[in-house]
């Protein structure tokens, strides 16, 4: 078990078991399927090889463009000059409303998922890396772009389009959207699964994104809503590019001997974005310059309806075949179907508006309700055209052939995660991107802790109301504050005891915020607003793009000030550090495990989060800060939590409001009984923090009492600095 010292080392590669490969091969290997699978949850281990080999296939045979050769120097200005996109040569197009609508439909997968490749850039393994901290600021400043952008939503609504649900299978199956756009969006999502493995490519990809114009640029006579959206985008991206460029400079400086290789990978990522962008831009221009004909639109409509219609028309015949036979054919023969329909008695060639076909879809007709108003307009438009049935119509929704990018065979010998102790499991959970086979073991750990928490927890009230919840939180807070007494004499615990305790807490606090590291996966679900609140807490824990405010960085500096040398958290030497007691990994292993399943365990995660945020308030932290100061130990990490976790508007308030919001949604959609059931799950999650830490709490007390005896028996002082362990 070996991990390089840098979390973004050059040659990181994930390991996948044969079993995970077998599951991955069950997916249809196309961009639409990958898009839907990744945007839905991201909790399935098989998604990792599915996404990894998709990225590899898109990079296969690609070489950097001539414009991205080695820069003259490795400073920011030279890198900026080397990574600059050329201006588009496409002239503006005056788009009609119909063309604008079509363009907006096409670009949705891409715009809704940018810049999701950065949403996991700052995870536990990388939470102290300056480049990751900087790029997390780029993601935060983007406002998640179109996904939550009111300007983009206004643009869609003004054009007469609905706000899409990108998580739905119907969205991914929508043949109206060209597959090139799903390929691009799937690439953006796939890169987000591997922020460490493809970090150089992500750096270049991000710079190209910052430098590119929107796919919607170049539409002359822009409606006001489009102008507003594009202007907001132009205002955001210029400030992001210098951050990305500086991150590249600092990253290259860390690998003196590997700069050329890294630069090639960075420019490969730059070109990867550029080529996919240009591919989509060309397709969009083609659609604008060669508008869809009435026959193409009608054929596309029938293609979309064919699957749902199959099985209902076996007695209706068209040119010797039942309609079920027509609809069951794969791919659907749009050209042949339209031609046959136009030759049939369903069409009145002299008076198309009076065609029997149209009457089928009117009120009291046998197919009333099958077509929307827009579908009926499409049908009328086709019937009103000359020689509508004989136009050369390509098969609608032309898509590139599926690519079998997964290897036919393969698989690594992965560790037996189910037999691991918490120390070892901690290492693999920190590095879950590299070892996704650990996820089933992580789920089992979460389920075990929650079962135990359920056995030993008693609800404060069975029937949830907001008032009862608020009263309960207020009671807990008042009790804590009333119990606080300022330090009036020498602390009971010695300085050495505190130093030892600080060392034992390192596995947990160097992973501070880890339980929420994947809350951003909720962005496209019904709980997007709740996910945003949890992500806000995580951003605060990791410094909001500012290294000095990053909690793990603050704690690492505290450790350094006390001469406690520890390896990087992602290094296997960290979990094998002899100074840690075994139970020091109980809580952080549980927190890391539940972080991988923000959708499956959302109510439990909400309760756990509340327990963590409330633990930073009251007498314990207030007194702890005073006692640390007494012994000359920097109390900054304690004071930061006391301040930021406040119940008025801080993390404790956000945690409580997220629970209220969640239970409101459950009550609205599922009723009061379901709301109380989810409240029980939330409270079980709340109690799980104490359950996970029970052994650690006892071990701390025992070791404090027995420590002098152990020191004498070992022949050395327990608190001396250990050599050979680099931070």
UniProtKB/TrEMBL annotation:
Pfam families: Haem_oxygenas_2
Disordered, as annotated region: 395-415
Domain of life: Bacteria
Stored InterPro entries: Haem_Oase-like_multi-hlx
Protein name: Iron-containing redox enzyme family protein
Organism: Methylomicrobium album BG8
